[in-house]
Write a structure and sequence with these properties.
Helices cover 1% and strands 39% of the residues. It contains one helix and 27 strands.
Length: 411
Amino acid sequence: MPVRHHRRPASAAPRRHTLVPACLLALLCGCGAGTGDAATPGAPEGADAPAPAAPAPPVAADGRPFTVTEVASFDEPWAMTFLPGNGRRLLVTEKAGALRLLGADGTIGTITGVPGVDHGGQGGLGDVVPHPDFANNGWLYLSYAEAGDGDTRGAAVARARLALDDAGGGRLSDVEVIWRQVPKVSGRGHYGHRIAFGPDGHLWISSGERQKFDPAQDMRSNLGKIIRLNDDGSVPADNPFAADGGVAAQVWSLGHRNPLGIAFDAQGRLWEHEMGPSGGDEFNRIERGANYGYPLVSDGDHYDGRPIPDHDTRPQFNAPEATWTPVISPAGLVIYDGATFPQWQGDALLGALSGQALVRVSIDGDSAREAERFDMGHRIREVEQGPDGDVWLLEDGESGRLLRLAAPGAG
């Protein structure tokens, strides 16, 4: 089936780590020709000539608008973030619990002091994000799966102060857990636990429903929700359900399944994607207090074949702006605003696991649609924008490669 696009109804609310010599995998093929200043043939004398057409973006030999450089490889990488400040220093999480530092010179070091993680299935060390004022306070935020009583586990978010050393590594200190999924449950799936800071400085966390379905609609649980907190883990007084107290006070939106990407655009709007069940991966614009319907509605069905009513049948739930059937299994999300690919500015870039692709989603006002899909030949776990506007990808799995996408002809 093709990708379907929705408009919301008006009524809706330590293994070995390999450093790979940088090599271009694609070469410059050509670029669009510019236009001259001559008047348009046949135009009246003195008439204004039409504005020259913008040159077409350059393409590589394989027809894609980027070249690919393999930079390094990691063991089950899950997330990455560039540290603020001088030099291109990149932190990469590995699911088994290691936090790696890739220096600007290509060396890979280790950050010690990471909390213990429950590694298995979809669980382990997850996201990593610096505080907006990291240059002054040194706070680093990590998400991960942690064990509970008996055969239970859940996601947690901790913050710690990061200090780098002269040997290319560093350590975490003052580690404190500031958020946990409630309750901890059995199984090792659907943690979500993507984290982001909003333009107002609040901390946002995506919390999966842990493959338990009903908690996504249960306000006694923070599973299947988008969470909004202060940077210390306390609850903002203006959250939509703050007056309800308990974990409900943390909630910004509900009815989510397995949200593995959250990002803000230049207008301050929050976008999210999540894996659907058998069909119906979603790309959503997140609104205050809104219910996105899972598991009561979905554009997919249960894996055992039982149908789930479509979003169109229940207009009281927010419908996704775009869905995918067959699924792409989205993971990682950035709203691009760099100069390397000006034709992508304002668009969302998603990794696709089962789709083995980089997917570009065009955002037009409050609506969105898939605009391009680039076959990468591997499961893409994470997408990040570099300080210079290049796009960086992490492949999923053992020996997952770190790739840098640059404009053809760039050094």
